[in-house]
Structures are given as structure tokens and as C-alpha cells.
Amino acid sequence: MKPVVLSVNISEKKGTVKVPVKEISLTDIGVVGDAHSGKWNRQVSLLGKESFDKFQLQAGRILNYGEFAENITTEGIILHHTNPLDRFIIGDTELEVTQIGKHCHGDGCAIYREVGNCVMPKEGIFCRVIRQGIVKAGDLVKYIPKVYKVRVITLSDRASSGQYTDRSGPAVVDNLSVFFDSQNLKSEIDRIVIPDDKELLKKTVEESLNCDIIITTGGTGIGKRDITVETIRPLLDKEIPGIMEFIRMKYGADKPAALLSSGVAGVINNTLIYTLPGSVRAVGEYLPEINKTLKHSIYMLHELDLH
Predict the structure, then answer these.
(1) Rounded CA gap, 149 and 214, in Å?
(2) CB contact set of 174 (below 8 Å; sequence gap of 6+)
(3) Is the pLDDT of residue 258 over 70?
(4) CB distance 278 to 218 below 8 Å
């Protein structure tokens, strides 16, 4: 069975059940006429029949679509298994997932008082409108998971000329692949090796700004051919100094040579960029720390406040 819209629902007051209607109009403020519309990230709420049926058994009575305050009731997708920044195409509209679940107001919510429980805080999802249009029961739902695009750039005169095989770049790819898999996120990671050339690095970075993340390895030391940091820093819209400072201090306490790396982290447009030293050991030290803030950093760039 193809995923489909079962019902579209509206309420004029927050915290109340919604009433099924023939169709809803989605605009840049969400559902026209709905109490939750506005310039924020929770413009449209969705709940799957899969969750609806489960909680209907707990309520001990037949529930109507909209009683859990969802704008759109669907069937065929386990909605709460999606991730922020995934998208749905419904008819002519396009929605982007901004939040999974929400805080429950308990007895302060009419839904909780009437039903005795509420599924939305656990399994409802929220979206913002990317493309406007009309949604109605019977519309098919196309699910498009977010694919995180990553480019790994190794800087090495010798590796680029074939004098030795790059090992740090593949180590980055392996580490990030494990990370994205562990988070149930899809990714596309490509890798390139270039010489220690300032203009080539700048050009490569500028051509990679369609990616979510850029990782460079090599060129962060104090040698004459170490040009990575001096090239990247002027390109940054914002620098994120804390990550690199923390890593240098963490490993520099036992290995003072680690303090000689001048690697930077920051943002160019909507792309995160991190400059790592050019060794497999450094990759193993830096990326576990970077990964701890990676998802939150991406969400912040997309204006999602998900603490």
C-alpha cells in the first residue's frame, strides 16, 4: 500500500482536538485557519494511523481523526521513525520535518483530559512548509529522507603525486560512515586528494559548498607547505573555536606535539568545515569529539532548536 493521507484536520484553539475538513491550505505560516499556524518550526502536525490505532486501544473507545490534534493523519509510514530535515511531498506541497514528538501538557491539555492519554508527544511529528498548496484526504505521501553530503579533502603533495597512499582520508570516510549509520541517517561521502596548493584548496572548497560537511586532513602544522588553516579561515562566515581548542587541550596534555596543530572549525554559508591534521591517529582523536556536536550543529544551521 502506498502511503496516503487519511484525513486533514483543523482547530481554532491550541490544546483542543481538531475537526476533519475537506481540505487544508498550506502557506508560509502553516495551515490556514489553524491555531498552530505562524512563523515557527511546528507549522504542521502529522500522526500516522499506525500510532493512532495503538493509542485508540488504550483509550478504550473509537477515536476520530484529529482527536490527537494532528493536522494530517497518514497511513503507510511510521512517522516517528523519520528524522529532522527529512521531507514529504503531498500533492503539490512539500513539508520538512522539524521535530519528533513534543512536551506533553498533561491535565492542562483538553486532548489529554478527553482521551486519557496523548500520542502526539511520543509519536507525532511536526513540519514546516517548504512548498505551498492544498492537501486533502486521498493524497499520496512521498517520503524523502535527508541525505547528508560530505566531502573529504586530503592535502598532501606526495599523496597527490602517487608517492604514497592516502590513509587519513579513508579513515575519515570510515569514521563518518559508522557515525551516520549509528544515527539512522543516510549519507553520501566522497573523497579527493590534492596537493598543498592554496588556490586549488580554495577552489575545491568553494565547489563543495553544496555539501553539508567538509572535512580536510593535512596542512594544519607550522611547516612552509602547511597552508590549510591560512586558506580556510578567511573563507569562514563564523568560526567555531571551542571544538578544536578542546581537542588540542585534551590530547596536548599527554602529547605536547598535538598543541602545534592550528586546525579550525567553522561555517561557510550552510556548510560545516573542519580542518584535521593529516594522520590516521589524529582522525581517530578529532572525529569522535566533532561527532558529538555534528547533528546539533547542522540543525542549528537549519534554524532547528532541538536541544
Answers:
(1) 9
(2) none
(3) no
(4) yes
Using alpha carbons, select from 244, 246, 273 the residue that is nearest to residue 261: 244
The greatest distance separating any two alpha carbons of the chain, rounded to the nearest whole angstrom, comes to: 75
Residue where the block lists cell 580542518:
275
14 band by pLDDT with thresholds 50, 70 and 90: confident
Is the whole model's pTM more than 0.85, yes or no? Answer: yes
Q: What is the mean pLDDT of residues 173-196?
A: 97
How far apart CA 181 and CA 289 sit, in angstroms, is 17
Task: Give CA separation, 275 vs 61, 153, 255, 265, in Å.
Answer: 58, 9, 19, 6
* Cell output for 303: 534554524
- 147-301 CATH pick, 3.40.50.720, 3.40.980.10, 3.40.190.10, 3.40.640.10: 3.40.980.10
Side-chain half-sphere exposure of 42, counting CA atoms within 13 A = 17
Q: What angle is formed at CA 193 by the lines to CA 191 and CA 195, rounded to 5 degrees?
A: 155
CATH code of the domain made up of 4-144: 2.40.33.20
Q: Which three cell numbers stand for residue 102?
A: 513534543
What is the mean predicted confidence (pLDDT) over 6-25?
A: 91
Q: Is 305 helix (H, G, I), strand (E, B) or coil?
A: coil
Please state the length of the chain: 307
Which amino acid makes up residue 163? Q
Sheet (strand 44-48) strand order: 19-21, 4-10, 72-75, 44-48, 125-131, 93-100, 87-90, 141-144
For the chain, where do the domains classified as CATH 2.40.33.20 start and end? 4-144
Helices 280-301 and 168-182 pack at an angle, to 10 degrees, of 40
**Rounded Cα distance, 258 and 275, in Å:** 14
Q: Where in the chain is the domain with CATH 3.40.980.10?
A: 147-301
Rg (CA), the chain: 24
State the angle between helix axes of 280-301 and 241-252 in degrees (0 to 180), rounded to the nearest 10.
150
Q: DSSP string covering 254-282, please?
A: T-GGGGG----EEEETTEEEEEE-SSHHH
